[in-house]
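Subgroup meeting minutes
Present: P.N., E.W., G.H.
Scribe: E.W.

1. P.N. recapped why we're keeping a running log of single-chain structure predictions: easier to compare across weeks, and new members can see raw inputs and outputs side by side.
2. G.H. added today's entry (295 aa).
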Amino acid sequence: MKKEKALNNFDEDIDPLKKSQTDKVVPIKLTEKSRFKFRCHKGISCFTACCSNINIVLPPYDLLRLRKRFGMTTEDFINKYCEIEILAKTLLPVITLRMQSDEKRSCPFVSPEGCSVYEDRPSNCRYYPLGMATLRKKEAESGKDEFFFMVKESHCKGFEEDKEWTVDEWRKDQEADVYDDVNRGWMDILIKKKSFGEREFPEIKNQMFFMVSTNTDYFRTFVFESSFLDTYDIPAERIEKVRTDDAELLKLAYEWLRSAMFAEETLIFKEGVLAARKEQADAVMRKVYGGKDKE
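Output recorded in log:
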């Protein structure tokens, strides 16, 4: 059975990897220019201590990078390393990394030498010790208020190091900004769904969201082997990017999901498509009612 998981921060949208009552989310909104001191390295006494007993949601790009590292299909990777869970307050299915069954509940990819998938590690790991929150606010630009915050775990000695960063420098150094760029459309869908309240979508929409956001092979087949390109006006240059670039494919997937799930005008129909659909619907109605007006 799928589990329900709340992602805990100021608005329960992102998991700051909080693990105990002694951990502290510093209640200060940070900007890209905010400064802090932190450094993690193999010689530090708490090295890899943060790699256990954690809840890590894998957004689409995180999942893509990890399963491609192992040359695995989405289904095989999920079966071996993940759980499918339902996010509280959005009621949408997401992928979480399954911890090992040892006493520490260790990450499956941690080793004495550190992270064995470091180049493709998840967004949460890249951000640590920072977190990012996105709140829906009417007065905020584009209806969102995006900010950062600090997570201080009781065991972490990284804050005692002398290396200083701005939030923006840290994100770029850890390549978290690259992950954000690709995953942002997915987060927008979660935030949009949350605005509906705890109202469940039809199961077919949940399945559609899950398949399209987790399985790039599935969505690429849908784009190039269905009537998708006959329906939507996608520039030729973008079509070629989508054909070979999984990050661009995911961005298109988010746009299509917003159109299919929320009826947003994120994709433009080709000329004549809507008229043809209306004629088709009218033909069905004429057949059903035998040419008589519907009462």
